[in-house]
Amino acid sequence: MVIASGSERRALVVEDDEDIRSLIEFTLSTQGFEVTAVDTGTAAVEAVRTFDPDLITLDLGLPGIDGIETCRRIRELTEAYVVMITARTDQIDRLLGLETGADDFMSKPFDAHELKARVNAMFRRPRRPSAAVPAPAPAPAVQAESTSSHEVLRHGVLRVDVDGRRAFKEDQELALTRTEFDLLTELMRSPARVWSRETLLRSVWGTEWSSDTHLVEVHVGNLRRKLGETKDAKFVRTVRGVGYRMESPGA
Description:
Layout: E1 2-3, E2 10-14, H1 18-29, E3 34-38, H2 41-51, E4 55-59, H3 67-75, E5 81-86, H4 91-99, E6 104-107, H5 112-123, E7 143-146, E8 151-155, E9 158-161, E10 166-169, E11 172-173, H6 178-189, E12 195-196, H7 197-205, H8 213-227, E13 236-239, E14 243-246
Helix pairs in contact: 1-5, 2-3, 6-7, 6-8, 7-8
């Protein structure tokens, strides 16, 4: 089923429960999305190829291939925002979902207003011009460059083309999700700053739900793996009891 709204934004609803599927379709269509819906993981992967959505809501307990495997396959095809929705409450499910590329996680039953709020927050993530806090002498240095069309941030061997939405380690491009890219960019804008999890939730996810700090923790972990951190080469340092800041590689 497709609900046309005339909007350029597209949403794919992947849900096998007809009542919940209809609720999500209606909720997103009232936000101006062109919505299409499927009820299996296999159909979702095919829909991503043909429909090219900006947002995907994904049920974890799908028949056939489940939501975790569907998310893995989807992430090979798109950088669309993915919100996983599940009736299960196991923490391992939440972590697996986030580690396979989901941007957010909601439990059934959910409130349509909360879904709207979370979607709105994702789509208004700030793309601010560089406004880094001046760093004291011992702080790691990040250079911001401006060309005619791109803002570029540098941190040691890391380089982020902000407007082009591309990140590199040395000359190797990093395969970051939208959320991982936004998180790295935010950290690099003010490298000397210690970012609390709550502050990152507001600035990257655009949410005030303090209970969602696990989103930050999991995505930082995913980002660290993709940066190829080792014991002797850290790019993101945990400040115990506070949050995170950028670190000089090898420090």
